[in-house]
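Quick note —
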Amino acid sequence: MNTKSLFTDDEFNFITSKNTLYAWRIVLFDWAVIIATFVLCAHFPNPFTILLGIFILGSRQLGLAVVVHETGHRTFFSSNKLNDWVGNWLTGYWVFSNKDSYMKVHLKHHQFAGTQDDPDLNNYRNYPISRTSLQRKIIRDLTGQIGWRRIKSIGRSIRKLGSMSPQSATYLKRSIAMNLVMITVMSSFGAAWLYLMWLVAFMTTHMLVVRIRQIGEHAAVPDLTSTDARLNTRTLHISWLERLFIAPHGVNFHLEHHILASVPIYRLKDMHRLLLKKGYYDGMRFQRGYYSLLNGVSVA
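Predicted structure written out below.
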């Protein structure tokens, strides 16, 4: 089906239109939350604020990665140069996300979703899983076992820096530099220990919300082998609290993203409403909340 035919010309032009001010608002919101979290923990350092801060930082690290994804699709800003600059300097480098390398794999995910050639298939092909297995995965995430593998991977890359391609070496050097900037700024305020929160969040809560996002998008869908996005991809209806801690910036509208990847993330909710009104989702049930989802993708 020609996806464009689902919409009038005015509707299509609206949902694919880019809004630079809205995009900036998303980026600034992430950094405002990150900075506010550090300030709160610096002024009131206690187990509660630090634990809360680690959960918030993990979700905002995902928020930065979401912007990397959007800028990689060139759907975030009207300017491609601005997409590249923000996707690297204001988001990707801070969480060691190489936008160009990521997009090479991610575009294949879009191309081959619903087939055995989907490069992301191993992340969700075995669902539903046992409740015990899901609990083990969550424990591994929150105890840093999965995150430590990521840290070791970054460490191996640093040791191989001299033999890397110029592009990969540049990405890694800039990622290290941006994290050193963060440490330096924190040190100038006498709170270098705050960087440990960023690191711990990256290794723990960030890994958990990434896993939950992946489960929400494609795990235990009606038909993972179908090329119809309505069968191989999921959209969830979620609360504001889940948007803050698990699914920033509308990533819960993943079905719409697969139907039409040229729609900016800040237009996906509008696209969802349009398709509902047009009957494109007739007969479908949209799950509410990640707690319900996790119960649904695991069995006793």
